[in-house]
Amino acid sequence: MKLVFSDKKSGKTAQVDIPKDREGMLIGKMMGEVVDGTAGGLDGFKLQITGLSDNAGSPSRPEIEGTRKASPLISSGPGIRHPKKGFRSRRVVRGNTVSTDTVQINTVITEYGAKPVAELFKPKETKAE
Predict the structure, then answer these.
(1) Domain residue extents for the chain
(2) pTM of the model as a whole
(3) Which residues, 6 or more positions from 24, have their beta carbon under 8 angstroms from its beta carbon?
(4) pLDDT confidence of residue 43
(5) How far is 69 from 103, CA to CA, in rounded Å?
(6) Can you tell me the distance from the alpha carbon of 45 to that of 5, in angstroms, rounded to the nearest whole number?
């Protein structure tokens, strides 16, 4: 599972892999909830869940309860690209709760920890040979 976190102040985004033993801390959480960042190694940070994606690439919609997949008739928002005025389409989307099928969790930093934010967004150094 990947945790993608962004900072509204700087406009930067980074991602971190969540270890299997810490995934349980996030399962059952819903979109819009504020969670502790310790699951992703961000001690002291508070993160608000803004979106989810499952293993098939389906985005989540906040109005669909639970972890189920559904095919609602939608006109805008997650799951629809380039909507035209009056256009509606039936798309497969996921519910608003984190489950074992969730692959990516998108979050926004709401409270900052002791670690400087610039250190979180450093590019990873590649191994030179």
Answers:
(1) 2-120
(2) 0.85
(3) none
(4) 87
(5) 15
(6) 11
